[in-house]
Amino acid sequence: MSFAHTRSLPVRAEAAHLVAGLLVDESPQPLARIATPSTGVQLVARFGPGVPGGVDVHVLGAQRRVRRKQVAGGHRAILLRLQPGMQRAVSGASPASLVGQVVAVGDFWGEVAGARLREALATAPDAHTAAARLQAAILERARAADGARGTGSRLAFAIERLQVSGVAEVARAAGVSERQLRREFHDTLGLSPKAVARLERFARALRDAQSSDAPGWAAIAADAGYYDQAHLIAEFNTIAGATPNALLAELRVAAPVGWSRLSSPSLPAAPATPPAPVA
Fold it and tell me: Which fold has domain 153-257?
């Protein structure tokens, strides 16, 4: 059986306000891979004989669906996940415009800047150096951007509460209007509160199922916030294009890509009590 190797890399202190997490993902042999949905925007640098020029860099927007692909042997990728609210500063595009998109970084930064970054990554002697150069590049881009801001605890609180409550109730609990809460989700993640809650339920159900040798789907559905097992099955079919058991069978063969949890490391932990309203 072929195996993939994924490990975390440290984020530079000066880039922590921009970068939520860094991973190096390697496929020594040809391998089927599965990427679960993500609410975050990522920069993905790919290295390997199957990549034109040996290296490319793309901006990957939030994804609403499971994606499947075949990865060539000798493939390496550095996945840099941006902090919510920092997508525009780094890419120049709004989070909403990036949802479901994979765009070459040169399309945002210009071909000269994109070529310079690819050359810097191609000459890096190891993954740590390549990751450091990728962070240096986004720091340089962000310094020229105005209005970059991260998210606070209210968004994390809202996402947690949306698992069991409607948008209007969550907005009241967070001390903001429903309109303001929807705007914060759109401006920060490019997704509606309902869309984020849907993806979070899916992620939680999938994690619970993978932690059991014989998952009980009715109990998993209840714990994850679905109405019932039928609701869970319908959502898996929509998001993954497969039944829950079929997706688990795929994941036993096709290694997952990236982070397993949707909201972390991008979002701060949800506070136990509502954040104080903003005056």
Answer: Arc Repressor Mutant, subunit A (1.10.10)
Residues 233-257 have pLDDT tens digits of 999 999 999 999 999 999 888 878 8
Q: Is 70 exceeded by the pLDDT of residue 2?
A: no
How much is the pLDDT for 241? 97
Confidence (pLDDT) at 276: 59
Q: Which residues of 234-249 are buried (b: 16+ CB within 10 A; e: fewer)?
A: ebbeebbeeebeebbe
Question: Which tokens is 195 given?
Answer: 């869309």
The Cα 137–Cα 38 span in angstroms is 23
Per residue in 36-52, pLDDT tens?
A: 998 889 999 999 888 88
Q: Phi/psi class of residue 89: alpha, beta or left (left: φ > 0; alpha: ψ in -120 to 50)?
A: alpha
Q: Distances in Å between the alpha carbon of 45 and those of 64, 93, 105?
A: 21, 19, 10
SS3 51: coil
Confidence grade of residue 57 (pLDDT, cut at 50, 70, 90)? very high
CA distance 104 to 55: 12
